Structures are given as structure tokens and as C-alpha cells.
Amino acid sequence: MSRVAKKRKLDKTRQDRLYFDSYSDVTIHEEMIADHVRTNTYRTAILRNSESIRGKVVLDVGAGTGVLSVFCAQAGARRVFAVEACSIAEQAVRIVRHNNLQDRIEVIRGTVETVDLPESVDVIVSEWMGYALLHESMLNSVLYARDKWLKPGGLILPSRAELYITPVSDPVVEDRLHFWYTVKDQYGVDMSCMSDFARRCIMNSDITVNSVSVEDVLSHPARFAELDLYSVTAEELRSVKGQFRCESFGSAAVNALCVYFTVTFPCPDKPQPLVLSTSPFKPETHWKQAVLYLDAPVDVVQDTVVSGEVSMYPSEDSARHICIHVDYTIGEQKRQSKTFSIPDWSSEAQP
């Protein structure tokens, strides 16, 4: 989104309405369910935890079309509360009935913070992750549900999330910047003076959601944060931060940093847990990666150190939108700082 709009802080009720309205159309649900990595990993995780689900009560937070609720019923859940705030809940009811599961899955329209469940639950399942993990802030609702409805010793799927960062080189950006130097040869007009303007436009402060090619990753990724869903608090989510240190593979120009996440599902019958990864080194998901463009590219050679600190926190304009602040040093260069955010569609919406 590149349109310019006057920013204004939205009240929480309006933020929530805009957020839930965005899930009322079929397109976003088609995209999520068609994401085989996402949907099949959840299905596999639920079925592998069938011993903990069979005969138990499950809460699906932000159920959407109810596909995870159906998986839980297929795994033997006695009862599933599918809580969904937006109008897609009407379709979830139809899907539940179409699969003859209405005696075990109850679709409840509303936010998990306002609905009243008839009993506590043994399991919470939710696909709460947004771009760069925390964009949309749905995790707060999962934590609310955990604290209010989950029985002691209950199961949370997924149970852990981790955030990673790595320097990258985006050749498309370099090609776009170099383009202005080619205009004279093509048309006889020297437009090389456009280069600085183009750099400011392209290498801006937006969090760009894009697929990063493995060939463009310049180091082993560094983990900078971990969230344990059994213990993390909503207050801690107001500032998720950590240090990172990477060493470049070889000679290249670093023009961006790439942030991605993983979530982990416990699997009691397997030696290793099940991991859903949005890494550039893994099959692509609809989350892709979050790309943070630096103000200017920096040349690195083998083993050049890229280090710093990442801080993620809610935007002042809209609490559901994430900001990422990075303090970083590349090689012998002086420390730099830059703050990024996802373009805020809500600031353009009319009251």
C-alpha cells in the first residue's frame, strides 16, 4: 500500500471493527486454508496430540471457518467451542453442520474476551500469528483465554514461538535503483539524479511482506526472541526484544534485514516437536517474510559481523499494528537505528 494518508490514532472499538471486518471476506480464508504448510501442520499437530484431546474440551480462539475445530473433533474432542468475532462465523456454522459435527462443535459469535463459556477447557488451539508474528496482536486474546478458561496443566497448541533475523541482499532493489542510470543510454536524457529520490522511496520505513530467496540470505539467521505461551504475559508483549549477531557468508551488499518466525507444537509420541517455520530456507507460507530495508546498502565480506538489537511493540496509532525498531552495526560502520511499521490501512478508512 503506497497511498499517502493522514495518520490518526483510532479508538480501540474502531480498530477492532476494522480488524474483524477484514476477515469477513472469503479471500483471506481461502489464502490461509490453501497454505498447505500452515493448515497441514496444524492438522498433523492436532492429530498427534489426540491422546490429550480425546474426550476433552477444546477452545478454538479466532476459529474463522472452523477448520481447526473440525480437526479437533476428528481427533476425538468431546466438545469444541469455536469462538469467532466476525461474520465468517455464519459460514463456520454451515461447515460444522455440513460435516455432521454440530453435536460436538459449538460456534460462538463474539470475542473471547466477551463470550461466556459453560465450562473450563482442557486444550486451547489457535492460529493467531500475523506478519512478523505479532502484527494484528491476536496473541493477547489467546493469553486472555489461557488465563480465564484453561484448566491447570492444560494444553496450548502451538506452545512456543521464536523470532529470527538475518541480513539479506535484495537484487530487485539494486536493479530499480540502477535503472535511473540506464535512461540516458536508452532515451538520451540523463536521469541519474533520480537515484537518491528513488532510494528514499524504495528503502523506506515500511515493513515489506515479501518472499526472500535463499540465494539472497547473507548469513545464518540469529534468534532474538522466544515466547512461551504457557507463561508469557500481555504486558511482556508490549515490548518483545533481543540481541542478535550474524556473520556474513561472503562478499555482497546488505540492503535489508529479514525477520521471520517459527511456532512449535509439542508431540508426546515423537522425539522431536512439530515446527511450523516461515524461514526463507523452508517451503513458502502466506506469511512470507518481513523485510526491513536499510537507508543505504552496506558492502560486506566473508565473516563481516552484523549485530544489534531488535525491539517489537504495538503502534501508537493502532494497537493491532506492529512496529519494529532495529539498532544495528555492520562491520566497522557506526551504529545505525531505524524504526519500521506495516502501512496502516485503518488510517485511510473513513469513520
TrEMBL record:
It is an enzyme of class 2 (transferase). Residues 160-332 form the Protein arginine N-methyltransferase domain. InterPro entries: Arg_MeTrfase, Methyltransf_25, PRMT_dom, SAM-dependent_MTases_sf. It is found in: Nucleus. Its EC number is 2.1.1.319. Signal peptide: none annotated. GO terms for biological process: DNA repair; methylation; negative regulation of DNA-templated transcription. GO terms for molecular function: histone H3R2 methyltransferase activity; protein-arginine omega-N asymmetric methyltransferase activity. The gene is prmt6. This is Protein arginine N-methyltransferase 6. One of its GO terms (cellular component) is nucleus. Its main location: nucleus. It comes from the Eukaryota. Residues 58-154 form the Methyltransferase domain. Keywords: Chromatin regulator, DNA damage, DNA repair, Methylation, Methyltransferase, Nucleus, Repressor, S-adenosyl-L-methionine, Transcription, Transcription regulation, Transferase.
